[in-house]
Amino acid sequence: MTKKKQQIWDGNVRDAALTILLAVDKQQAYSNLLLNQTIKKYKLEANDRGLLTELTYGTLQHKYTLDYYLEPFIRGKMDLWVKWLLRLSLYQIEYLDRVPDHAAVNEAVEIAKRRGHKGIASLVNGILRSILRQGVRSTEEISDPVKRLAIETSHPDWLVERLIDSYGMESTTKMLHENNVAPIASVRVNTTKATVQEVLQMLEQEGVQAEQSKVMPECLHLISGQAARTKAFKEGFLTIQDESSMMPANVLNPQPGWRVLDMCAAPGGKTTHMAEKMKNEGSILATDLHPHKLDLIDENSARLGLGIIQTAPVDGRKAAHLLQQESFDAVLVDAPCSGFGVMRRKPDIKYTKREEDLSNLHDIQLELLNNAVKVLKKGGRLVYSTCTVNKEENEETVKAFLTSHPEMEPADLENLPKELLERSQHGMLQVFPQDFGSDGFFVAAFRKKTE
Ligand SMILES: C[S@@+](CC[C@H](N)C(=O)[O-])C[C@H]1O[C@@H](n2cnc3c(N)ncnc32)[C@H](O)[C@@H]1O
C-alpha cells in the first residue's frame, strides 16, 4: 500500500471507530457486531482491521479512565460526538505507543473539521494540546480504594463493590485489569474430521501460527493470523471458540448414541462441540428462544459436517410443556446471563448492564433449570453454565435450584483437565479471566436421582 493510501485509510479508520463508538452509546448497539459489519463494508485490510479493533475496544474499555483524565480540561456542555472524539484521541495518546501524539491530535482536528466546523476543531486542538503539555492527573488523587480501582480499570462502582464482596480485593483487581487486555484468540478442533496435529499443520500451511493449549486438548491458541479466513475453517476443521466455552460439553460428556437437549443453543458453539464429542452419533435437539438465531446453528453444523443436530424455536421456560417428559439422556442449559466474564470481548457490557437486571436473570435461569429437570431422564446428567462471574447467577442459582429439586444432586465435574478440576467445589467450577487468559466462566453438573 502506498504512503498516501495509508494516510487516507488512517483517517477513515479513526472516523469509522468514532461512528461505532457513537452507535454503541446512542443506540446501545453491540460493539463486536458493529466492528464486524464495518470491517466487511469497508473491506478493510489486516492493518486497518487491527487498528480499528484496537481503537474501538481500547476507547470503550478505558472510557471512565479517559473521562477522569479529560474532566479538568473540559468546560461547559459538549456534543456527544466531540466527547467521543476526545476520548478516542486521548486513548491513542495515553495507551498506544505506535501512534505518535501529534498524529492523534492532527487526525482529531481533521475529523472535527469534517464533522463539525472550525470552532470545534480549534476546541479539540486546544484541549488535546493542553493535555500533551500538562499531562493527565494521577488516580492517586482518589482516596477511596474502590472508586480508585473503578476509575483505573474503568468499571462501574457498583460492579467493583459487588466483585470485591464476592472475591476480595486481590482477585477483583487482577480480574478488572485483565478485562482490559485483548483476549487470546482460540479455536476448537473438529475431532470428527482431523487430529489436533493435522489441523495445526493445515493452519501453518495457510500462514496461521497456532499451538495446542496446555489446558483443553482440543483447543488451539492462535499466535498470528486469522482463523476465520482459512480454508481449514471454511471446510469445517475448526470452530472459533474461547477455551472456557469448551468446558460445558466436556463436563456434560455426552456419549455416542445419546439423546441430548441443548436448551439455549444459538449460535451453536456448544451444540457442535457436543456433536463432535458424540462422534456424530445419536441426536441433539438444539433450541433457542429466538427463531432467527437457529440459522446460525444450522450453518455451523453444516459447515462442520455434523448431521445429528436438529433445531427448534423453544422458550426454555416452557420446554416441559412442549417437549416429552424424561426423554433426554442429558441436558445443557448454557443460560442467558450478565456476561461479566466476557467484558474483554464486549466492553459495552460494563456500561449497559444495571444491577437491577441481575435478579431477573437469576429468576430466568431458575425457570430454565426447572424445565430442564422435567425433560431429563432419571439417572440423566444436567449441566448449567454461564459466562459470568456473578455469584447471584452462579452459586446462588445452583443453591436455589438444588433446594427446590430434591430429585437432583450435584455431580462430579468429569472429563476436565487436572488444573481445572482442582478449582472445582461441590460440582461447581468458576474460572476467572486471569486464571488461564480465557473468559470468565461458570459450570455446574447435576444428576437426576434414579429413585
Ligand atoms: C449464552 S447464549 C448461548 C450460547 C450457545 N450455547 C453457544 O455456545 O453458542 C444464551 C442463549 O440463550 C438464548 N435464550 C435467552 N432466553 C431464552 C429462553 N427463555 N429459552 C431459550 N433460549 C433462551 C439466547 O437467545 C442466547 O442465544
From TrEMBL:
Keyword NADP: no
Main location as per UniProt: cytoplasm
Record keyword DNA-binding present: no
InterPro entries listed in its UniProt record: MeTrfase_RsmB-F_NOP2_cat, MeTrfase_RsmB-F_NOP2_dom, Nop2p, NusB-like_sf, NusB_RsmB_TIM44, RCMT, rRNA_ssu_MeTfrase_B, RsmB-like_ferredoxin
Keywords, in A-Z order: Cytoplasm, Methyltransferase, RNA-binding, rRNA processing, S-adenosyl-L-methionine, Transferase
GO BP annotation list: regulation of DNA-templated transcription
GO cellular component: cytoplasm
Function summary: Specifically methylates the cytosine at position 967 (m5C967) of 16S rRNA.
Family affiliation: Belongs to the class I-like SAM-binding methyltransferase superfamily. RsmB/NOP family.
Descriptive protein name: 16S rRNA (cytosine(967)-C(5))-methyltransferase
